[in-house]
Structure formats: structure tokens, C-alpha cells
Amino acid sequence: MNLSTEITYLKGVGEIRSALFKRELNISTVEDILYHFPLRYVDRTRILQIKDLKNDLSKVQLKGTIGHIQKGGNPRKPFLKAVFTDQTGSVNMVWFKQIQWIEKKLHEGEEYILFGKPSAYKGKFSFSHPELNLWSNNNQISNSLTAVYPLTELLKKRKIEQKIFREIFRKLLDGKGIFIPENLSKEIRNKFDLIDRQTAFIKIHMPDSQGELKLALRRLKFEELFFLQLRFLMIRQGRKTNAPGIIMPKVGHYFKKFYDDILPFTLTDAQKNVVTEIWDDLKSGQQMNRLLQGDVGSGKTIVALLIALIAIDNGHQISIMAPTEILAQQHYKSFSDLLFPLGISIGLLTGSTKNSERKKLNADLQNGDCRILIGTHALIEEHVKFKSLGLVIIDEQHRFGVAQRARLLEKGNQHPHFLVMTATPIPRTMALSFYGDLDVSKIDQLPVGRKPIKTAVRAENERHKLYKFVKEQIQAGRQAYFVFPLIEASEKLNYKNLNHGFDQLVDVFKRPDFQVDMLHGGMSSLEKRAAMKRFEEGICNILVATTVVEVGVNVPNASIMVIESSEKFGLSQLHQLRGRVGRGAYQSYCILMTGSKISETSKKRLIAMVHTNDGFKLAEYDLKLRGPGEMDGTRQSGGPQLKLTSMVEDEDLLVECRGAAQELIINDPNLDKAENVEIRNYLKSKNKYKDWTNIA
Prior knowledge:
The chain is of the alpha/beta class.
């Protein structure tokens, strides 16, 4: 038996269970089931005392006696209560189900082992539906931690329970079932104090103690992160070998003319540094693959424009892809306005572009007349061809998958340079984990004179004050956004909705003194464009919108952002929405409206928004606040699937693994040395080694 053996042949599985495992858990082989890690562990190896109970404990064991037993409630909602006491104190136990059966098991004065999760109310701990066993029948506690595995509802219905999984692993890992080949060199294992791989898998599924579990987790997390970083470094190495970059050695007429005579403001030092970094890439002879991070309003667009001018000065075309039509149109307008004096031809291609316009645009692209093409995913359509594509820029890149980006890169006859931009600051651990194959640049300065946005949290009973404030601001010449999480009311979700909000605002901000428009994803492209045009031109005072305005909408005169049901939004999204204001010379405001009942986590998010405008600080805080297991929403299509690693807890380990992978690549780039045979064999077994050296 080896790792590729089908699980049908495992003891305790068979054909029926094998089919269920494949369908429900995507488990087909021995290797698959080994990587079906426990969700958590039940520690029944020790007995706590009542005085040691804490709020943050999971399930615990206590030893004590049953005291007073009491029945209560009514025939429809009965309950059973009992007191459980040890030498250090007492706790209450309560049951709402199977009361008659439970009551028969309880005997005052008898000694029991209690197992359950404690909860505290007014300083007093209690247990709801605890497990109880007579000490006389159970006078030995467990000598190992008990693994608890993720199961689906269908598996539970088919009587596939935890004990079945535990028995499968017991038979598989008893020393006779399976040999798990090592995949790290002896040198790496010794340097980082790692146990062997076979032992790690045994102890993660069947740990005898917390200490053993800790060692197993460290080894398997290291393995996970090491090969992730090795993959990134091999991709970069492959690019250097297989993807020579288009050399763009000069800064010419277009760049100099724009920088000296047209640029409407002075660049920040951060912007200047990033432009220099990118130009170094462009003239290096190697394909650029760079991630540009910048907080909202930091000036990424002007950097992209300057880099585009360098490409044009060197005889090449530029493609700029945005995730939404609104953002694509915004970029098109900005580029067209700024570059008009230079006479540079710019095209716009979106899903709503007419066929006649598409034909002319494609002809202009192929003969080189169109120098910059801005658009949405329509850019990757097969008929879109360039004469000389030299630079690909992707804005808000986390919204595009790997395959989409790859198709855009294929538009070039050579290997075009690749710049991806995001206004969503990425914590260091995430940058290494998801973009480790890219060089990273950061714009961490806001333009001079930009005023910090004043942010406040307001409850529903303060709405009349809000409306009065908004009226005053509009009468002073400003504009406002009102953002809602939903277009229509939901029976399940108690959110403020746009349609109701729009009617309410129209009633409060009456015509002709005020003009209120709406903008949401359910509108046609023509309707959305018309609404945005009215707002940009100042005809509309209040734009009532969904999060369609989250990205790219730039109206300098808009100084108020009201976010309804703000507790329903994530921290990153709140920051993005706030960034739609504060782009002009006027003091701007963000008002976070909340419902009457919000969670502690939501309160923390909103407090963080009030205390800082720094997106990088908020990103780090958001990561810590959400904790491990909630990062899937940040993963791009084709990104790494980290089964064990926590972005919060394992930053130091990630840095260690990055260093180990770098050292390996420097000392043995082709993994030819005998001491690295385990690593080489593992990569070959995965059939990834060749793939990793290709362009991703």
C-alpha cells in the first residue's frame, strides 16, 4: 500500500464508503485521507478543578458529586437542573431534552466524571447537556487526545461518525499500514528541529499529548509553507530563464512632456520611488512581475499612467484591465483628460461596447494606432489582438483569477511586463503566502494637503441629526453617498436596503432643492453611466448606491460617505468605501450607521475605523480580528490552499520557510545534490517540478 492507493482498499472503508468520501469530502486516495486533518481535539487526558474554569475554555472534564436535582419549566418546555460539586466549588448543569432518561442516570451523592463546555453567567459557570459517567464505571481517564474530523450532513445521516474515521486512521497508521516517504532533507529537519514526516502524520491524527500535537503541527505547517515558497521561487527562477523581458531603456518625449508640463501636482516621495523601481524592471531585460499596493487615494493611477508613457516612448502598447465597467470608464476618462495634450490614442472596451466600435478598435490595435486599451474582462476575448503589447496593468487584481491574467499576458508576441495594482492593503503574511512570486512595491504616503477623513459611528436614533448635517453640507456645495448592503429587502437578513432607503431619502431631501439618484448592479450599463455622469457633473447631490461604488469612483466634490448597516460590512470593504470621499480639498466625513444590536466583533471593526485612516494598519488588524480559517475570501482563483497554516499565528514560521526555500534555491537551484533527494523525489511525485519552473 502507498499514498496513491485508492481508499476502497483501506480497512474499514470499502466501496460504499469510498464513494461517499469521494463525493462529500473529495477523498479518493490514501494521501487524500491523510490530509483530512482534524478540526479540533477533545482533551480527556486530564481532570480540571472547578476553580480553574475560564470563559475561553473548550470542553473540559471535571470529577465531583451530584447535589440537588430539580425539575422545572412546563409540559411544553421542561428542563432538568442539577448541582455538580468538587472540593473547590460548584457548577450548575441543565438539560432540555431526554429529561426522563437523564434523570434516571443521576444519583445524589454519587461521584461522576463530567465532560462538556462551560459557559459563564454573572460569574457563575454552568454546563448545558454535559456528558456524565459514573466514576466507578470509568475510573481511568483517556491517555490520548481525541481527534474530531469535519463531516458533512449526508455522512452523518449514513452513520459515518467520528469513531469510524478514528478507527480508519488507527489501522492505517499503526506501523504496518502505510509508509509515508520523507520530503524534507535531513539538513532542513535538523536545522529547524522538525520531526520526521511519518511521525508527524501519526501524531496529528492520534496525539498522546498537547506536546506531541504541537510538534506534529509545526512539522506539517513547515512542509506546507516551505513548498509554497519553493514554488514561488521556482516560478521566479523559471521566468528569468524562459521569459526574457522586453527592454525599455529610455524615458522619452511623452514621459518628459507630461512630467514637466502637464502633471497637475507634485508626486509624493513614495510615488517617485515606485516609478523608479518599475522603470528598473522595464530596462532590466527580464519580465517584470510586480504587485503595486497603495492605500485608497494614494495615487496608483498616476503611477500607472507614467509607466504607460515609458512603454509608449519605447514603441509599445499598454493594456489596462479593471474589474467593473464603472472603474474602466473612470480610468478611460482620467487617462483621456490627462493625455489629451499629447495626442495619444486611448481605447475603451467593455461588455457594452458596440460591435461597430469593437471592429474599429481591433483594427487600431493591430496597426498600432491605439496605444492604450482600457477595459474589463472583455480584453481577454480571442479577437482582441495587439501589434506590440509591452505592458499589462491589472487594477484591483484580487478580483481576477490566475487564468484570466494568463490569457491577457498571451496577447503579446513577446513576454509583456506585468503590473498588478490593489487599493486593498495586504498584510505581510498574506503577501508572502499569495503573491510570493511577485516583487512588491508600496505607496504608503497620501498626497500633500489631503485631509484625514473624519469617521463617526451613529445609531438609528441619531438619524435626524445626520440628515440635518448632510443638508448643511450639500447647501455648502458638497455631495454625498449613501451606501446600502442590499438592493431589496430580505426576509432572512435584517439589513437596510437600497430601495427603501432611496424612497426615504427622496422624501427627506425633496426636489427641487435636492436631487437624489440611485446606482446599483441591477441597472443597465447605460443607466449606470447616466447616474454616474449626473453625480460627477454635480447635478445629483446624493447618490444612493450599493457597493458598486467601492472601487474606482472618484468625485472630488463628494465629501460625505454614509454607510448603512455598517456592521454588516468587513473592515477592508468599509475602508474602501470610505476612500470614495476625501479626494478633494474639502473636509470629508464617513458616517457608519448601525442597528440596535451588533456583535462585539462588529463593534471592534467600527472602533478601528474611527481611530485610523491607515489602510495598512486596518488590514493587519482585520487579519488578527478575523483569525485563522476565515481567509478564503482573500484567496484568488488558483491560489494556495493552506490546510493548517494560520495567517495570524504562523508569520514567524512563514518567514523561516521563505528563508529555507531561498537558501535551497541559491545553493542547489536544480536540486541535483544528493542531500536534497527527498525534496526532488517529492516534487517529481507531485509532477509539479516542471510546472513550477514555467510562467504562472
